[in-house]
Amino acid sequence: QSKPLHSILDGLNPAQRRAVVSDAATVAILAGPGSGKTHTLTARVVWLVDHVGFRPEDVIVATFTVKAAREMKHRIGRALGNGREKRLILGTFHSIARRYLAAYGRYIGLAQRFGIADDADSRALVERICKRLQLPLDPRAARAWISKKKAKGAEDPSKPASKTASKPARPDPHTGPGLKDLETCYQEYQDHLEKSNLLDYDDLLVRCVELLRKHPSCVSNIQIVLIDEYQDTNGVQYDLMKLLAQRHQRITTVGDPDQSIYGWRSAEIRNLWKMLREFPKTDEIALEENYRSSQSILDFSLQVIQQDQKRYQKKLKPVHNRGSRPVLRRLKSPSTEADWLVSEIRRVHALSGTMLTHNDFAILLRSASLSRHIESSLGKAGIAYRMVGGFKFYDRAEIKTLIDYLRVIQQPENNDALARIINVPRRGIGTGTIKDLLEEAETSKLSLWDVLSKHCRGDRNAKTRITKHAEQSISGGLLRPLEDIRKLIREAAVPDAAPFGLVQMMERLLTKLDFQKHLEKVHAEDHEGRWANVREFVNLAADFVRELDVAEDDALPEIDDLEQTKEVEVLPRFLANVSLAADAQTGDDDQESKPVVTISTIHAAKGLEWPVVFVPAVYNGSIPHARAEDDDEERRLLYVAMTRAQTLLYLSCPLFSANGNGERTELSPFVEPVKGAALNKGPCLDRPVMEEIAKILRRKLPDEDSIYQDLPAMLHLEDNLFPVDPEAARAEAKGGLNRMGGPSDGPPSKRPRLYGPA
Ligand code: ATP
Ligand code: MG
User: Fold this and answer.
1) Taking residues 428-435, what's their average pLDDT?
2) Is any ligand 1 atom within 6 A of the Cβ of residue 37?
3) Which Gene Ontology terms of cellular component type are present (predicted)?
4) Distances (CA, A) of 515 to 512, 520, 694
5) What is the ipTM of this complex?
6) How far is the C-alpha of 710 from the C-alpha of 88, rounded, in Å?
7) How would you classify the pairing of strands 361-365 and 89-92?
C-alpha cells in the first residue's frame, strides 16, 4: 500500500527532504515562520509510517493546539490513506497525557473517572479560597504562582511534585508573609481538586510524568515522539517528551525561538538548547526559505523582530515576489478603526472576484476584549465571522451551564459544577442556602452531592454541622427541588450504550430542564441566539461522536504487565475534548460550510496562515500589553501575528484606546521605528498587484471583466463606508499622523477609484 517515495518528498526543498528522511535518533529543526516546519514534520510522520514501517499507534505527535492537531491529522490522512492516521497518538500534550491517564491512571491511584478543571474553574476555585480564608492575595497572581510551582515541581524527580511547597528557585515577588499565604492557598486548592476528583491542566502533565516514571511499560511500544512548536514547551512537557520516548529515545522537534509566546505559562525557550545539550548527536537542520508571505510582508516582520538584540539569528529568505506593501493606519477611535477594517475586507473581497472568500481574512487581537467593536462592524456589514481562542462559545453562560450539567452527570462529586447549576433553571434555592450547603460539605468533608443526598434521605447525624439558616430553608420546602435535581442527574447518568447515547442524553436533559423556556424567561432579548448556541453545542457533540469511529483510547497498546482498560465511555472523552478545546476553537471547521472571517487571539493563531491579516490596536498598552512582564515576548507576539499574513497585512491603531476612558494612544514602540516602510491607506489593487497575489496563493485570477464588474457597487461602498473623519483629519493636518506611512505604492494608477481611502 505504500506510496511511491516521490509523492511524499514532492516539492520539498533539499533541507526539508533531509529532515523528513533523517535517520538520526534525535532531530531538531530550527527555523523561522512559514519555512515549512509543520509541513516537513507532517511529511516525516508519513515517511516513518509508510517507508520506515512504524505502526501508527507507536508514533506520538504533539501539536500546540487542538486545531493544529486536527489539521495535521487530516493532512497525514490524505497521504497515508486507509484511515491509518486515526491510529496515531496525535494531539496536544494535554490530550496525550489525558489519554494515558484515562487508560492507566488507576496505577498511580487516580480515580477511573476524573474530571478536568479548566482555566476558568481553577481561577474560580482560587478566588473562592482566597475569599473564604481571607488571604490577602491577588487570585490571578496566586493561580499563576500555583501553576508555575506545579510546572517546576515535576522537573526534578528527587523533589516531590507535591503540595509541600519548597522555596522558589528564582526570587519571588511573594516572599515573607505573602509566601505563606500562597502556600496555604496552594494546599487548599490541591486538596479541593483531589477531593472532587479533578485534575487541572498542570496536573494532567505532572501526573502523566509520574505515571510514566513508575510504569514505563505504558509506553514500551512507542517508537518515536515528534513535537511541533517546540519553543513553547515547558519544563514538565520536556520531561514528558523524554518519558514518552524513553524506550527508543527517538525525538524530532521543530521550533522557532522567535515565536516563543507562552513564557507567561512557564514555557521555556531554554528547552531548545537543553535538548541539544542532552542529546549531543542531534541532527540539527535549518530551513531558510519562507514559502508563506510576500517579500514585503516578510521584510517588515523581520524589521520588527530584529529589534530584539539578544535573539538567535537565523536566515529567512522569501521565495515569493515583493507583493503589496503592508499598511499601517491610524484612525480616530476603536469604532472607526473597526469600520475601516471591515470596509477594507469588503473592498479586497469584492476586487478579488472569486479568488478570495471570507475564509481568507483573519483579524488577530492581542486580547479578546478588543473584539467588541469589530464584531459589531462585521455584524453591521452582514459579514459572518468565527471567533477563535480566549473568547467565545464555551464561555457563553448557556453553554457553561450545560457543560456543568454534563460534568455533574459524569462526576457528581464535582462540587463547583453542582453548586453552579443547583439553581439553574431557577428552583428557588437561594445563594445563601447554596453557600450553607457548600460550607456544610466542606466542614463535614463530604461532597456537596453527598450532603444533598443526606438531606433528601432526611438523615442528619450529629457529626454534620448545619447552619440554622440551611436547616430552616431545607425544612421549609427546599427538599422537593433538591430531590428533583438529584433525580434528574441520576436518571441522566444512565450509561450511554451506543456512542450516540451521548447526544440522546443531552436531548433528554434539555427537555427535562425545559431549557428553551428557561432561556426565554431569563434572557428575554436574546434567547433565540442563545438557544441556537445550545443547538450548536448538541451538533458539536454529534460531530464528536461521529469522529470517534476509531475509539481513541482503544488505540493505546496492550501492555504486558498492566491489564488494558477498555474505556469506551463517550461522556468523559467529550468533556475532556471540550475543556481542552476551549482554548482553541469554537466548533465547526467544515470546509463546506459558509466562508467566514476569522477573529482570533494572536496566541491561538500560532502556526496558521491567511491570505489577508489585520492586526488592530497596535498601541502601547495593547501590544506590548500594559500587564505584560516581558516586552521581548510581546514583540515576538506581534511578529507571530504579522507572519501569519500571506499577501496583505494591515496594522492599525486608534487615536484613543478601547478601554472607554478615552485615553490618547501611542503607536506601539515595536512599530514606531519601522513605520516608514508601510503604506498609510489600503493598497492599490490593480491588475498587476492582483496577479502577484494570485501567484503567491497559487490561485487563479478571474478574468478582468468579472473582477471589475462590481465596480459601481464598490464606488457606492467607498462613498458610504469611508466617511472623512473630521477629527482624524484635523489631527492629521497638525502633522501628527501624515508621516505615518511611506510614499504611496508605485506610480499613480490609471484606476484611482480602486485605491482605498486616502
Ligand atoms: P510557523 O512557524 O508559522 O508554524 P511553519 O514553518 O510551520 O510556520 P508551514 O506552516 O509548514 O510553516 O508552511 C508555510 C506554508 O508554506 C504552508 O502553506 C506550506 O504548505 C508551504 N510550504 C512549505 N514548504 C513548501 C515547499 N517546499 N514548497 C511549497 N510550499 C511549501
Ligand atoms: Mg508550523
Assistant:
1) 85
2) yes
3) nucleus
4) 8, 9, 49
5) 0.99
6) 48
7) unpaired
Task: Give the pLDDT confidence of 561-608 residue by residue, as tens digits.
Answer: 333 333 346 888 888 877 765 544 444 444 446 899 999 989 989 999
User: In the structure grid, which three cell numbers stand for residue 231, read together?
Assistant: 519553543
pTM of the prediction?
Answer: 0.78
235 within ligand 1 shell (Cβ under 6 A): no
**Please, what's the b/e burial string for 14-29 (b: 16 or more CB within 10 A of its CB; e: otherwise)?**
ebbbbbbbbeebbbbb
Neighbours of 539 (CB within 10 A): 13
Query: 590 in helix, strand or coil?
Result: coil
Q: Which amino acid is at 102?
A: A
CA Rg, the chain, in Å? Answer: 28
Q: Which residues contact 599 (CB under 8 A, 6 or more apart)?
A: 362, 363, 365, 371, 374, 375, 378, 385, 386, 387, 388, 391
Collapsing DSSP states into helix, strand and coil, what is residue 387? strand
- Cα separation, 571 vs 443, in Å, equals 31
Q: Is the CB of 333 under 6 A from ligand 1?
A: no
pLDDT the model gives residue 664: 87
Q: What's the pLDDT tens digit per position in 407-421? A: 999 888 888 889 999
Q: Which of 30, 262, 291, 316 has most ligand 1 atoms within 8 Å of its beta carbon, as the pocket-test mutant? A: 291
Q: Do the beta carbons of residue 636 and residue 260 sit within 8 Å?
A: yes
- Average pLDDT of every residue of the chain: 81
For the stretch 327-355, what's the b/e string if a residue is b when 16 or more beta carbons lie within 10 angstroms of its beta carbon?
bbbbbbbbbbbbbbbbbbbbbbbbbbbeb
Q: What is residue 444's predicted lDDT score, i.e. its pLDDT?
A: 80
So what's the pLDDT on residue 83? 85
Q: How far is CA 472 from the centre of its chain?
A: 46
Residue 169 neighbours by CB under 8 Å, 6+ apart: 152
Count CB-CB contacts under 10 A for residue 293: 29
What distance in Å separates the CA atoms of residue 611 and residue 613, rounded to the nearest whole number?
A: 7
User: What is the maximum span of the chain, computed from C-alpha positions, in angstroms?
Assistant: 91
Pocket flag, ligand 1, residue 44 (CB < 6 Å): no
Task: Assess whether the C-beta atom of 35 lies below 6 angstroms from ligand 1.
Answer: yes
3-state helix, strand, coil in the chain (%, to 5): 50, 10, 35
Binding residues for ATP: 31-38
Contacts of 745 (CB under 8 A, 6+ apart): 324, 325, 679, 683, 684
Q: Locate the ligand 1 atom nearest the alpha carbon of residue 13 and give its number.
A: 27
pLDDT band at 6 (very low <50, low <70, confident <90, very high): low
Q: 425 preceded by cis ω (within 30°)?
A: yes
Percent of the chain with pLDDT over 70: 78
